[in-house]
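== Sequence entry ==
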Amino acid sequence: MNLRRLLFLSVGVTLAGWNSTQALAQDEVAVSQARSALLRMARDSAVVGHYRFSVREHQQLVFDIPADDPRSALLESATVPKEKTTEVAATLVSTPSEPEGERRYIAYWLGYKIEGSEVRGLSPLQWDSIFREAGRRAVVRFSPRGRARGVEVGSDAVRPVGRALASALQGLATALPPDSVSQGSRWQDRVAVAFDAPDGSRLIATVEVTYRLREFQEAADGPIARIEFDGEPVQSSAESSAITGRYFGESYFAVTQGRYDRVMALANLEVEWKDASGLPPSRSIVEWQAQITRR
């Protein structure tokens, strides 16, 4: 079984396990009687909730040369799998806006952590000290339809936290439909999945995503829209690499409150490097996973 197929299977098992966990969490939720609804982000002043944003990147560089090629031993260290996990915790508070105006959420940082095989970040305790000194407040901007527009911070000291959150939001499929939707309705949008390239730079894969409203579920505080999505990278002749693969996941959107309670997205990508700088032909196998959870 080749590495790419193994990654697809492992992520599929992850999603299946996650789905079963959510099914258990939702066992008290019945199918809603709502036939259609207009899905929009909250525009009043209220505490939206405490959120955890997480992104996990796992990748391996593969050189397409025979195992007995003399260069294999020299390149062995470059093919060691690499992994990085980033987590941001924050309380979000919505602010008043016009029906079609930009949504601005006040974010109060609760925690930040980044760790990995080649990352040495500050400890959560050290970041908490920085938050106390530099301030915990930031602004997260969305369109009325849920597309992330950026994160504004008040100090350079916490800029890495803002960048991490902005990157996670750009890669998550949170776009809401332009009009009212009912069960089975579909709409499209794009996301930008960012991950580390072998040379240390950040590479962005633009993905065309198709959304489908699976169902409305009835919860204690109103209907929940269960949304499924999947897509593939968009190719560009101007890029220095060719990206193929699949992106998929699901989300739960609280219709009455205008908020996401949960979003999970996974991407299996294969990046073929066009410019190898004199090295043998190579490609990166990337597994990217991101999640939003409201607590």
Summary: The chain has four helices and 15 strands. The helical segments are 3-25, 71-75, 124-134, 159-171. Confidence is low (pLDDT under 50) at residues 1-30.
